[in-house]
Amino acid sequence: MTLPDGLDGPQLAAVLLAAALVLVPGLWHWTRHAATLVHETGHAAVAVLTGRRLTGIRLHADTSGLTVSRGRPRGPGMIATAAAGYPAPSVVGLALALAVGTGRVDLALWIALGTLVAVVVHVRNLFGLLVVVVAGGAVVALVRYATVEVREPVVLVLAWFLLLAGPRTVVELWGHRRRRRSRTTDADVLARLTRLPAGVWNALLLVPGLAAVGVAAGVVG
């Protein structure tokens, strides 16, 4: 069998393993916590970058999360903050894929560790603290104990996990809104902040994830 250009055997294995972590229900039940952590970190990062005051992050055992910030209740900053969560796993996944492709895995891991340190001081519940500590411990173990031959494939699997998790969580958002008729999702918040319906926002939030997968597929080689 001939593999597509830019995708060798180890890279294909990384993609397949990542796909299993996202698509197998028994695995996704646990791995989704990582996607939620990145999702809420996206909200938090954009809140700070747009001048809002970050007051707390919560990660729950049902894989939901909540990030609270203070500032103007409307306007570009609030819209950007509300929109940042769902694209965040895709953006981070693409950044990690680029780090692997350019030989900057160690730099990416140190940035990840620094980000987790910044996040942990804003976590406001015990389960959320557990998730961040476990994630931080995994990064420390990779940095301190793993060889480069181990670090690179592990980071590549993580990259593809986040790249695939991003679109899946957006699809789940659509189903969640239809089943529960919830009006508290990010899409509904964005609908209240703008003139676009929540369904349109749900579709728009899928675009960055699909684009990131396409870009990553072209650069992993």
Automatic annotation (TrEMBL):
<feature type="transmembrane region" description="Helical">
    <location>
        <begin position="12"/>
        <end position="30"/>
    </location>
</feature>
<dbReference type="Pfam" id="PF13398">
    <property type="entry name" value="Peptidase_M50B"/>
</dbReference>
<keyword id="KW-0472">Membrane</keyword>
<feature type="transmembrane region" description="Helical">
    <location>
        <begin position="196"/>
        <end position="220"/>
    </location>
</feature>
<feature type="transmembrane region" description="Helical">
    <location>
        <begin position="154"/>
        <end position="175"/>
    </location>
</feature>
<keyword id="KW-0812">Transmembrane</keyword>
<feature type="transmembrane region" description="Helical">
    <location>
        <begin position="130"/>
        <end position="148"/>
    </location>
</feature>
<keyword id="KW-1133">Transmembrane helix</keyword>
<protein>
    <submittedName>
        <fullName>Uncharacterized protein</fullName>
    </submittedName>
</protein>
<dbReference type="InterPro" id="IPR049500">
    <property type="entry name" value="Peptidase_M50B-like"/>
</dbReference>
